[in-house]
Structures are given as structure tokens and as C-alpha cells.
Amino acid sequence: MESTSQTSSKNQPIAAVLLSRAHDPEETKRILTEKIQQRPLFLCPSSPPPSDARAARRREREKKRLSRKKALKPKPLSANERRKLGLYDVPRSGQKYALFEPLHQLWLGYIREILGNEIHTGGEGAASKLTSADFHGAEVEVVRSGCVSRVGLKGIVIKDSRFTFEVVTRRNQRKLVPKEGTVFRIEVPLATGTATVEEGQSDVNKQQQQQTEAEQPKMIFEVHGEQFQFRSADRANKKFRSHFSKIL
Fold first, then answer.
1. Cβ contacts of residue 16 below 8 Å, gap of 6+?
2. Which of 46, 57, 137, 205 could form a disulfide with 201 if both were Cys (CB 3.0 to 4.6 A apart)?
3. pTM for this predicted structure
4. How far is CA 108 from the centre of its chain?
5. How far apart are CA 192 and CA 105, in angstroms?
6. What is the set of domains in the chain, with CATH numbers?
7. Chain mean pLDDT for the chain
8. Bias regions of kind Basic and acidic residues — which residues (predicted)?
């Protein structure tokens, strides 16, 4: 009898043997049949199969439409690809001071609007606004530099990168000025009625216009390039704190 019971238990699955130790034979049979042998296996419970052929065709069309839309969407260019295509380069024909004077006038209006009444008083409020401002179109002048030959260089900023200012001078020359070890001076006239110098004007008219601009009251501030080595987009979201600088 013992040998027959041992052979029958060996032929049974291990689940039935374990259940028989805790339940009676009828309960063991019921649990084995309902909970183990006939238990449904859901391969993808979150996505049940379509109820009919029409729903299946609709789902297939939607999947194809999404894949086609994703394939047609162009990928954004990387920084290396933009540099290779020359998107950041200014052609030699466009390196003229007169072409960027309207941009400079727009920047003057932009900076006056940002500063508001603090353009007359200055202070920490004006400094915090100037640090987060965009300097594309500003006319900067190098007043101090580790390289003596750069002192006195003046031009309109056409590119404000992380480590350099790219400017166009009045002699229609493009200069790349590093921010490190350089102090820039920027002048903002308080009056809004400044006019641009046209190419067809005589030398007398140009001199008179330069004299009137020199007599106008201005807000003059200096930018220390050592503390300004950020891209213009990064400066807009960065909070600067006043602290002692060893360079000053």
C-alpha cells in the first residue's frame, strides 16, 4: 500500500501534492482545476484585443498615421551641424557698421524699457536688470584688457557667446573680443531722439550729429567680462549675487 501511494504521489503534479497536505481531496481538486490548471494568462492586460475586425482596422490605421507623422517631423540640428552649415557666420558683405546701426537703436529702446526710472538713479536694481539683459546690438568699448592692443576697441555686438563678444567696428571690421580679463564700457543715452548716421551724409553733418550725441546725458556702466562668462539665454534665468571680487 505504501508503495502504491508513493508511486501515485510521484505521478501527481507538485501543486496537487502540496494542496493535498492542507486540504481534503475534493477541495484540493477544485483549487487545482480552477486556480491553477484553468487560470487565464493575460499577456497584455492593458491592451485587450479589438472586439471586431473594424476596430482592428481602425487601430492599424491610427498606428500607421502616427508613425508617418513621426517620420515626417524634422529633427532639430545639433550644434556641430549648425556650425558646419555656417549659420553662425557673418558673410564679409554683411560686416558693415551701417547695417547694424538699426539693431543698435532697437537695443537702446529695449534697454531703456527694461531699466525704466532706474536709468536715472542706477543702483543694485539697475545692476540686476543689466546682468540678465541681452547685449546683442549694444555698442561696447574695451576700457581695460590683458592685451593692451584691444584697449579702445569699440563696436556693435553681433554675437554674444559664453566666452566672447563678436563686434563690428566703425571701420567695418569684425573683431572677436574675449571676455576674460576684459572690462567693457557701455553708454545708454537718456534721450530717445537719437538718429542713425547714414552713408550719404556729409562729414559736417556727421560731426554735428556726433557732437549732439556727445552732449546728451548718458548712463554709463562697465561690464567685467570675468563675471559675465555666460550665454545670454543662461543669464536671463541666473540670479547674480553681489560679492567681493579679487580682480577689482
1. 28, 32
2. 205
3. 0.59
4. 25
5. 9
6. 14-37+45-72 (no CATH), 93-191+216-237 (2.30.30.210)
7. 79
8. 21-37
